[in-house]
Design brief:
The chain is α+β, with helices and mostly antiparallel strands. It folds into 2 domains: 9-62 and 120-209, no CATH class; 69-117 and 213-285, no CATH class. It has helices spanning 19-28, 37-47, 52-68, 72-78, 80-85, 122-134, 151-154, 186-189, 198-205, 236-250, and strands spanning 91-99, 110-113, 139-140, 145-146, 181-182, 193-194, 216-225, 234-235, 256-260, 275-276, 278-285. The chain has a 5-stranded antiparallel β-sheet with strand order 2-1-7-11-9. A two-stranded antiparallel ribbon has the order 3-4. A hairpin with a 4-residue loop joins strand 3 and strand 4. The longest helix is centred in the N-terminal third of the chain and has 17 residues, at 52-68. The chain is globular and about 60 Å long.
Length: 286
């Protein structure tokens, strides 16, 4: 993968600055503090498409507005009965932006923590979403290789190569389906060749930028335990019974849509009378 020479390219965009450079900047500066957001908007308009930055900005504003209405200390206090019982374990309650993925936009299996000074989070949240939009258009195969191999594709000299118009069949790499392509770093990856199939191409054909505007929602993240507590086992059935009593009280002032339970509750295929070393709950806010 191409690596940019400097992380200050926003100060002076060189002629050969391409979409991979933009992605690296978004990835390595995800705290957002070093960004001139007006410059980010210009780059988004160039590589992703006009109007996308404004829609993301408005969506993030809406998420932060929902988070403003939550008294997170009230939620923490409501969880004390459970946390005190399992005081040996790490526990967390935090505001967050819930994230899903392109394959299932309603799953919300990820989250981005949101700090207490909500407006300070906005640049970082915007840049994370822009990064997520770009990523599927950059790579293919396993180990991944660059999808945009022609200068016109990586420099986005034609609007058809913008993310809003992404069509895998427009890219020359798509002609290499089922062919072994030499990897750049076989000693590092352990693979001499990368290969991708029609299944990979079909997944790329399902890329739809509109899905990204359903993939991020305001939320609350509650966790108990973790890898550092892997030797401590919590009885899953007992814990969830306690949460059934505690959660409604903890969320009594929260305007939420649903609770996303851990360990596939209600659909799980295993006996819940078992030990777990961590448990997370996500609250999807309205």
């Amino acid at each position: 993968m191409k690596h940019i020479k400097t992380y200050k390219v926003f100060e002076s965009i060189e002629q050969d600055y391409d979409i991979y450079d933009f992605f690296e900047e978004l990835k390595h500066n995800s705290n957002g503090k070093s960004f001139d957001m007006s410059r980010v908007k210009k780059l988004s308009d160039r590589f992703i498409g006009e109007g996308v930055f404004e829609r993301i900005y408005k969506m993030v504003d809406s998420i932060l507005h929902s988070l403003e209405d939550v008294d997170i200390n009230d939620v923490k206090e409501g969880m004390l009965d459970v946390f005190d019982e399992y005081h040996e374990l790490e526990s967390r309650v935090m505001l967050c932006m819930l994230c899903s993925d392109l394959d299932n936009v309603e799953k919300f299996n990820g989250m981005i923590a949101v700090g207490p000074n909500l407006d300070n989070n906005k640049p970082r949240m915007i840049c994370i979403i822009l990064r997520d939009i770009i990523y599927p258009t950059l790579f293919i195969g396993y180990p991944i290789i660059n999808l945009r191999v022609q200068p016109s594709e990586s420099l986005v000299t034609d609007k058809k190569y913008q993310c809003i118009n992404f069509n895998i069949d427009d890219y020359t790499m798509s002609a290499n389906v089922d062919k072994g392509i030499p990897t750049k770093d076989p000693d590092i990856s352990g693979y001499k060749h990368t290969k991708f199939t029609n299944y990979d191409l079909d997944k790329k054909r399902n890329y739809d930028i509109e899905k990204f505007f359903e993939m991020y929602k305001p939320g609350i993240y509650i966790s108990l335990g973790g890898f550092n507590n892997y030797e401590y086992k919590i009885n899953l059935r007992k814990l969830e019974s306690e949460l059934d009593v505690t959660l409604p009280a903890a969320l009594h002032n929260v305007n939420y849509e649903k609770i996303i339970w851990d360990a596939s509750r209600f659909t799980r295929k295993f006996n819940d009378d078992t030990g777990v070393y961590d448990y997370t709950i996500k609250i999807l806010l309205k």
